[in-house]
Amino acid sequence: VGIITRGNVVRAALQLKHESENMN
């Protein structure tokens, strides 16, 4: 998409981690 800020990367990583924890 273009420029991804460090903050967005952190937010995405936390969201993915949270979703994976909910699946288990």
TrEMBL record:
It comes from the Eukaryota. This is CBS domain-containing protein.
